[in-house]
Amino acid sequence: MVYEPHALDTLVERGIAREWVERTRAAPDSREPGPVHPDRMRAFRALPERDGRVLRVVYVPLPDGACVVTMFLDRGRRKA
User: Fold this and answer.
1) pLDDT above 60 for 80
2) Which domains does the chain have, with CATH numbers?
3) Which of 16, 64, 73, 75 is the most buried (most CB within 10 A)?
């Protein structure tokens, strides 16, 4: 998996572990295409490490993995 420069900055700025991003992309609770950029996917996963808050990972699927565009703890989404 590769990360765009913005995604690398976001990891540090928001205190998000790469392991959380990789786990979310590989085994999401849910997944949906991006509404504005249909080539991008959004993966969501509740993180026990963050009191069940939901991590959203936006990425572009690639033949050999994915390119992570950005990620954040999604305030509008809650664990089901």
Assistant:
1) no
2) 2-73 (3.30.2310)
3) 16
**Tokens 């991008």 appear where?**
40
The two tokens of residue 65 are 């993995």
Tokens coding 38: 């249909």
Count of H-run helices and E-run strands, the chain: 2, 5
pLDDT given for residue 54 in this prediction = 96
Cα of 66 vs its chain's centroid, Å: 11
Which token pair is 70? 């950005």
Tokens of 47: 């993180």
Local structure of residue 48 (DSSP, 8 states)? G
